Amino acid sequence: MTDYDVLRVFCAPNGGYGNELGVVRDGSVLPEPERRQELAAKLGFSETVFVDDPERGVVDIYTPTLRLPFAGHPCVGTAWLLDVPELVTRAGVVGARLDGEFSWIEARPEWAPPRTLRQYAAVAEVDDLAVPPKGEWVYAWAWEDEAAGRVRARAFPGRDDGIDEDEATGAAALLLTGRLGRALNITQGVGSQILTAPQPEGWVEIGGRVRLER
């Protein structure tokens, strides 16, 4: 069996929740995209990262069914694990930094895969949502405190890969921040926390707590 680490990314202040992530530190053991896709499907995480160069931060990202040019929570988690100043993804170079308990990356909204950002009038409406039909990737959100930039969100990938809801989704937070043009403090899923901040020239920072599970 290929060795891999399991992280939880975008954890709550108490260290709980967060979205699980698989990271294969030695990507050379599975160089072929087809075999990487097979392992990602077998592991069943919302994303699995293969590290092709740990010093330069070159990474390759897969869902159970797709290869992605960029994804938020995999980049936040892998940057924390490797402790590198940047990651090289197929979409572009992602800046990375550690600030106390938070791991941050800097990316561009146009790198994120398409998402339907669906706003609701109240937090209770988001909390009460059932999983929508397959086919559309939906990021459901509502203001918890608009003046403070606090958002309640849930994410529904709409894929046939066994993942009905993502506990924490950096790429969708990136898109929402790009649309709203302001810093956000997002509570997603059961209790995960995602922080974002717009940067000059269209960049956005995404930050969160990362924990090593095993």
From TrEMBL:
Pfam families: PhzC-PhzF
Species: Streptomyces coelicolor (strain ATCC BAA-471 / A3(2) / M145)
A Gene Ontology term for the protein's cellular component: cytoplasm
Protein name: PhzF family phenazine biosynthesis protein
InterPro entries: Phenazine_PhzF-like (IPR003719)
UniProt-recorded Gene Ontology molecular function terms: isomerase activity
